[in-house]
Write a structure and sequence with these properties.
Radius of gyration: 23 Å
Number of helices: 12
Shape: globular
Largest sheet: 4 strands, mixed
Distance between the termini: 52 Å
Structural class: alpha+beta
Strand content: 25-35%
Number of domains: 3
Number of strands: 25
C-alpha cells in the first residue's frame, strides 16, 4: 500500500530504534527525498511492505536476482516505490531529482542491480549502493557517496575508544512524514552525544517518512547530507562534527594480502580497473580508488566469480530484445564481431584477449538482450566486456587459460 501525503500536514515525529528485532521487523520504506518544485506541490510516498528492508547478504542476493515483472512508462517516484515494495529494500531518491520523470521496464528477468543502473543512466543520474541502501541522485554525488561513507568510518576508527563505540553502532533508523532534515541531523548528533557545527547552513525542507535497515551514525549522517552536497569532519576527540562541502574527488586506500605473485595480480587488476591506483607492497597489494572498485577487487582476490558487465544505455533501459541467436563451433572473436556489426555497435578487443578469441563456441539463446548474447559468447572462453552506449570493449575475465 502507498500513502500519498500532502505537505499541508504539520505533525513531525522522529523515531530511532535499536537493531535488536527477533521478529516483527520494521516495514520497508521507499524514501523519496523529493524537492518542492516551483511548478507543482510536492507529494510524498511511503511504501509499506509486510517485512523490513533487507540488509547484508540478503540485500546483496536481492540485487543479483531478477526483476520478474515489467511496467509501462511511469514516474520515477512510482517505479522506485514499486521496486522497494516488491523487493523489500530501502531506496533513497535525492531531494534534487525531479521524481516525475518517466521510466519504463520492458525486460522481465533483468538483474535488479542492472535495472537500477539502466534507470539511472536513462535519466542521466547516478546510482550508489551504500551498505544496504540504494541511492539515486546526481552523478557526481552518487559516484563518491560510498567512498565518502567509508572514509568517515575510517576516521572514526582513529578516534578514542569512548567515541568509536557509539559512532559505529548499527541502529535501525526511522522518521515520520514531513520530517525536517535539520531536526533529523540535530537528533542524530544528540543520539551519540556529538556537537553539530554548521547545521544552520542546511535549508528548510520537508521529507517523507523513512524506514532504513541498521546503519552506523556515519552512514546515516552521510545519507542525510548527500542531498545538500555536504559531508562532515570530526573534531580530534570525536565529540563534535562540522559540516563541510562534499569534495569533487575522493579516494579510499586499503592493502590486501595476496601471498604469492603480487606483481602479477597488480598487472591483471590494473588492466581491469584503469581508474584505480594499484601497486605491490611486499606480499600485499595496495589499492587506491572508489569503493565500488574495492568491492569487486576484494571479491576477485577471495576467488569469487564476479560479473563485471558495465551497461550504460543511452535510451530507455532494456528495450531491445533478440528473438533467437544460434551459432555452432565458431570462433568467439568472429561471433562477437558479427554481433556488433548487426547491432551497429563499435567493438574493440584488448590485446590480452586474442588467444581466447580464437576458441570455438556454440551458443543458442532466445528472447535475450544484446548484453546477454555477448555474455553467452564471451563467458565460456574466459572473457568479459564493457558496454558504453554503442561502444563495446572485450576484456580478459577473472578466469580462463
Amino acid at each position: 500500500m502507498a500513502r500519498w501525503i500532502d505537505q499541508s500536514m504539520e505533525t513531525i515525529a522522529m523515531v530511532f530504534e535499536s537493531t535488536r528485532h527477533s521478529n516483527g521487523l520494521p516495514k520497508v520504506a521507499s524514501i523519496l527525498l523529493a524537492a518542492a518544485f516551483a511548478f507543482a506541490p510536492t507529494v510524498f510516498i511511503w511504501a509499506e511492505a509486510s517485512e523490513g528492508p533487507l540488509a547484508g547478504t540478503a540485500f546483496e542476493r536481492e540485487l543479483k536476482g531478477p526483476v520478474d515483472y515489467a511496467w509501462a512508462p511511469k514516474s520515477l517516484r512510482e517505479a522506485l516505490d514499486a521496486l522497494a515494495e516488491q523487493h523489500h529494500i530501502a531506496i533513497i531518491l535525492d531531494r534534487r531529482v525531479d521524481p516525475n520523470q518517466e521510466v519504463e521496464n520492458s525486460d522481465r528477468g533483468l538483474q535488479l542491480e542492472l535495472l537500477f543502473q539502466g534507470m539511472a543512466n536513462h535519466l542521466d543520474l547516478g546510482v550508489s549502493f551504500l551498505d544496504s541502501v540504494v541511492y539515486f541522485g546526481p552523478k557526481s554525488t552518487a559516484k563518491n557517496l560510498a567512498t565518502i561513507a567509508a572514509l568517515r568510518k575510517e576516521e572514526v576508527r582513529k578516534l578514542p575508544e569512548s567515541s568509536r563505540r557509539s559512532l559505529l553502532q548499527l541502529k535501525v533508523w526511522r522518521w515520520e512524514q514531513l520530517a525536517e532534515p535539520q531536526q533529523l541531523m540535530v537528533a542524530l548528533a544528540a543520539e551519540v552525544n556529538v556537537k553539530l557545527v554548521g547545521v544552520e547552513e542546511i535549508p528548510h525542507d520537508l521529507w517523507p517518512a523513512a524506514n532504513l535497515p541498521a546503519l552506523s551514525f556515519t552512514d546515516r549522517m552521510t545519507l542525510l547530507l548527500a542531498g545538500f552536497d555536504k559531508t562532515f569532519e570530526f573534531a580530534p576527540d570525536g565529540l563534535a562534527i562540522r559540516l563541510i562541502d562534499m569534495p569533487d574527488a575522493v579516494i579510499f586506500q586499503k592493502a590486501y594480502r595476496v601471498g604469492s605473485d603480487p606483481s602479477g595480480r597488480v598487472a591483471d587488476l590494473t588492466r581491469m580497473f584503469p581508474n584505480a591506483k594499484i601497486r605491490a607492497d611486499g606480499n600485499s597489494i595496495l589499492v587506491a580508488g572508489l569503493m565500488e572498485d574495492h568491492k569487486v577487487i576484494r571479491e576477485l582476490l577471495d576467488g569469487k566469480s564476479v560479473r563485471r558487465t558495465n551497461v550504460i544505455p543511452t535510451t530507455r533501459p532494456a528495450t531491445l530484445k533478440i528473438d533467437r541467436f544460434s551459432v555452432e563451433n565458431k570462433r568467439a572473436g568472429d561471433v562477437a564481431k558479427y554481433l556488433a556489426e548487426q547491432l551497429k555497435m563499435e567493438i574493440a578487443f584488448e590485446p590480452e584477449t586474442q588467444t581466447r578469441l580464437q576458441k570455438l563456441v556454440t551458443v543458442e539463446v532466445k528472447d535475450a538482450t544484446p548484453e546477454e548474447v555477448f555474455e553467452a559468447v564471451l563467458t565460456p572462453v574466459g572473457l568479459t566486456f564493457r558496454l558504453e552506449g554503442k561502444s563495446l570493449t572485450v576484456l580478459p575475465g577473472e578466469s580462463g587459460d
